């Protein structure tokens, strides 16, 4: 299901009436209280409708996006997002309620950012052929880019390509963005014939469970963060399991200045690190780096 | 002639008994409907709070074993597929269409429909507990009415039928 189809009117109709070429490249739909809804794409932004969004309308939109089930989305709301069927992510701006130093919920919602997930087929195969040509087999591959540069889209396609080649892949999909699972355990995206999805599992536990119970050749995870994630990646590599992962960053230097990443990279957790760029189009590979030679 | 009189008398008594039962039916229907709602709410609690099922699935699952309410709840859930649907309004319309409920019952359930799904799990649990308590109170009241008025009317109407027969004879 496409992201805008979740929206109530008048916005749903307005998006459906957009020119086809603009619509095809639409990246984000942003709601902010007392402001018009804006659309963002490679060509910049434009107002969808001139009427500003009222607090009640914003609350209604969030409620509809949450499938009328705020109680069921508490864990996501605490982290400031919701994931829709199809892997579309909704970022939520609001006031955090903090208890004992921990965010327990969000109130006074002031903005929503609906990021449209797209399945793109093709770049994964080209990338894999490039890595194979460089002598990389089933090991660790890390995709690095700033937000909106196509990390998750490329990871998804890479998973599909490798899975369709007969490799057993387990996707640990903490935020339901890679598979875009839609309730009944049905993947919203084609992840290949030999892929299992651990939907909603925290990365560390998910990787452990995948290795222990699902016997994968490869584990795929999105957005590595802290040292615990890296430790889980290390465990997977030491268990003979390959890892496809993404993380936020802009360049090789961004990784090397973070001591935990520097150490893991130089110790060989990843055979190849690819930095991606949104220019000229999301998913553009800017640099392929083999950390073996980085020390 | 006597035979005709006996047949007429039996017909009057039979009609009176039927009327009496008809008069008692709303009391019985109220009890059955409230009991069905109580069972739905009891089932809804773990589905929402523990299993965190999305509301449409939780409602259908909770009502599955309640034939009195299932089709109404299933129709309500079908409307939620439309992003323009207003759940509170649809919930009210559903309540209007369910026979057996009295205005007091509808008021309690209407209030519940206003907050259904809108808050976090803890708050939903508290609301479910509150509505179950209210339904429990209303069910007791409905059973009391059924025991009193629900038996009184059939007895009264049947007695009137017998009196009419006596007078006619």
Provide a quick synopsis of the model.
The complex is a heterodimer of chains A (295) and B (169). Chain A is α/β, with parallel strands linked by helices and 295 residues long.
Structure notes:
The complex is a heterodimer of chains A (295) and B (169). Chain A is an alpha/beta fold. Chain A is built from ten helices and 13 strands. In chain A, helix 5 (123-133) crosses helix 6 (151-164) and helix 7 (203-214) runs parallel beside helix 8 (227-238). The model of chain A has no long low-confidence stretch (mean pLDDT 86). The longest helix of chain B has 49 residues, at 2-50. Chain B has six helices and no strands. In chain B, 85% of the residues lie in helices and 0% in strands. The radius of gyration of chain B is 22 Å and the shape is elongated. In chain B, helix 1 (2-50) packs antiparallel against helix 2, helix 4 (87-97) runs antiparallel to helix 5 and helix 5 (103-115) packs antiparallel against helix 6. Chain B is mostly helical and 169 residues long. Classes of the chains: A alpha/beta (295), B mainly alpha (169). The A-B interface holds A 5-9, 12, 63-64, 67-72, 74, 77, 105, 183 and B 48-49, 52-58, 80, 83-84, 87, 116-121, 123-124.
Distance between the termini of chain A: 46 Å
Could you tell me the number of beta strands of chain A?
A: 13
Described by its quaternary structure, the protein is: heterodimer
| Shape assignment of chain A | globular
> Treating each run of at least 4 consecutive H or I residues as one helix, how many helices of chain B?
6
The percent range for helix content of chain A is: 25-40%
Low-confidence runs of at least 5 consecutive residues of chain A? none
3D shape of chain B: elongated
Sequence stretches where pLDDT stays below 50 over 5 or more residues of chain B: none
Structural class of chain B: mainly alpha
Number of E-type strands of chain B: 0
Largest interface: A-B, 18 and 21 residues
Radius of gyration of chain B: 22 Å
The averaged pLDDT of chain B comes out at 88
**SSE series of chain A:** HHEEEHHEEEHEHEEHEHEHHEE
Strand order within the widest sheet of chain A?
9-8-10-11-7-12-13
Cα-atom radius of gyration of chain A: 20 Å
Major β-sheet annotation of chain B = none
Distance between the termini of chain B: 12 Å
Q: What about the largest sheet of chain A?
A: 7 strands, mixed
Q: What level of helicity do the residues of chain B show?
A: over 70%
């Amino acid at each position: 299901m496409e992201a805008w189809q979740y929206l109530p009117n008048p916005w749903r109709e307005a998006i459906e009436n957009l020119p086809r070429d603009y619509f095809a490249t639409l990246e984000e739909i942003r709601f902010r209280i007392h402001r018009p809804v804006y659309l963002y794409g490679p060509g910049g932004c434009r107002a969808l409708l001139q009427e500003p969004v009222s607090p009640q309308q914003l609350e209604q939109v969030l409620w509809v996006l949450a499938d009328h089930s705020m109680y069921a989305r508490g864990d996501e709301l605490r982290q400031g997002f919701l994931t829709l069927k199809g892997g579309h992510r909704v970022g939520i701006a609001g006031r955090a309620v903090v208890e004992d130093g921990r965010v327990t919920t969000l109130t006074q919602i002031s903005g929503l950012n609906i990021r449209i997930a797209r399945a793109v087929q093709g770049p994964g195969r080209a990338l894999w052929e490039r890595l194979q040509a460089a002598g990389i087999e089933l090991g660790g591959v890390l995709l690095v880019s700033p937000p909106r540069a196509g990390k998750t889209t490329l990871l998804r396609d890479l998973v599909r390509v490798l899975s369709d080649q007969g490799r057993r892949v387990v996707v640990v999909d903490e935020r339901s963005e890679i598979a875009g699972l839609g309730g009944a355990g049905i993947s919203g995206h084609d992840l290949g014939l030999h892929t299992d999805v651990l939907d909603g599992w925290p990365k560390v536990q998910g990787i452990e469970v995948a290795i222990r119970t699902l016997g994968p050749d490869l584990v795929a995870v999105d957005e590595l963060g802290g040292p615990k994630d890296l430790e889980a990646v290390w465990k997977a590599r030491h268990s003979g399991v390959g890892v496809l992962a993404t993380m936020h960053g802009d360049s090789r230097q961004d990784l090397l200045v973070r001591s935990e990443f520097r150490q893991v990279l130089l110790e060989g957790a990843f055979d190849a690190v690819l930095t991606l760029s949104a220019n000229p189009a999301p998913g553009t590979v800017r640099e392929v780096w083999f950390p073996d030679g980085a020390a | 002639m006597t035979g005709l009189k006996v047949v007429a008398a039996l017909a009057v008594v039979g009609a009176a008994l039927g009327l009496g039962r008809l008069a008692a039916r709303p009391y019985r229907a109220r009890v059955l409907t409230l009991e069905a709602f109580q069972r739905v709410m009891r089932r809804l609690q773990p589905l929402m709070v523990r299993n965190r099922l999305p509301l449409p699935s939780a409602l259908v699952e909770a009502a599955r074993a309640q034939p009195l309410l299932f089709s109404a709840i299933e129709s309500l859930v079908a409307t939620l597929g439309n992003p323009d649907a207003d759940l509170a309004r649809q919930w009210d319309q559903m309540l209007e269409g369910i026979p057996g409920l009295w205005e007091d019952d509808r008021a309690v359930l209407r209030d519940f429909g206003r907050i259904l799904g809108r808050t976090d799990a803890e708050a939903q649990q508290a609301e479910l507990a509150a509505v179950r308590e209210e339904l429990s109170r209303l069910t007791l009241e409905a059973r009391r009415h059924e025991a009193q008025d629900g038996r009184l009317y059939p007895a009264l109407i049947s007695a009137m039928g017998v009196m009419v027969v006596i007078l006619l004879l």
